[in-house]
Amino acid sequence: xxxxxxxxxxxxxxxxxxxxxxxxxFSRDYGRISLVAKGVRxxxxxSPALYQLYRDLNVSWSGRAxxxxxxxxxxxxxxFDLQGEAMMAAFYLNELLMRLLHQHESHSQLYDAYMMALxxxxxxxxxxxALRYFEKQLLDALGYGLVLDHDLVSGDPIEAECDYYYSxxxxxxxxxxxxxxxxxxxxxxxxxxxxxxxDEHSKLDGIKQLMRLTLRGYLGDKPLASRELYQAxxxxxxxxxxx
Length: 243
Fold this sequence. Notes:
Layout: E1 2-16, E2 20-27, E3 31-37, E4 57-62, E5 68-75, H1 84-100, H2 108-122, H3 127-141, E6 163-167, E7 171-173, E8 182-186, H4 187-195, H5 204-219, H6 225-238
Parallel strand pairs: 3-5
Antiparallel strand pairs: 1-2, 1-4, 2-3, 4-5, 6-7, 6-8
Helix pairs in contact: 1-2, 1-3, 1-6, 2-3, 3-5
């Protein structure tokens, strides 16, 4: 297998042996890929900036599918300048992709959605909106898309002024489920998420609970490291509690 300069982002990297590095890529045309960058930690000609997360890259590789070898890497644009909570949010996006994407499955639309999410975070837009849009698009790409425009029990269109009970098994319904876990969400919020037009009037708590409930079914019981890191960051940011 030989791939030449395909658009990619590094999702994760770690040292490998004495001088190399293991990379987990999200590529536009080949999905999630594992690569070894041989000798990169001793080769000063290869700029360390090219191996940063959230950097738009073109990457080439060759070799076996399970662990190919990096052959070329170049910048495809400036990196996203993410700081503080925006960086925590981007780390969460990366962890979702690492946990939920199978290797070698192309998701070009999800790749574009990931870039859009980074753009929103880099421009200082609402992190809550950026995360909810990306979670929605991720579920769509995986074939687990949310039903946001009609009542799955009655078949009627979602009405903005009504509240709905959303269960993973049943979807949104005006009838409260009797046996499954559910989240209560305003119809206006479901419609706004469907159109990706959330605003300050949207009731985001219900959507956040729904996304957590839905993703938990696919992530399993292992906690998200990004969530724990975010909680630690916010605790440090608030500082010690004084009486």
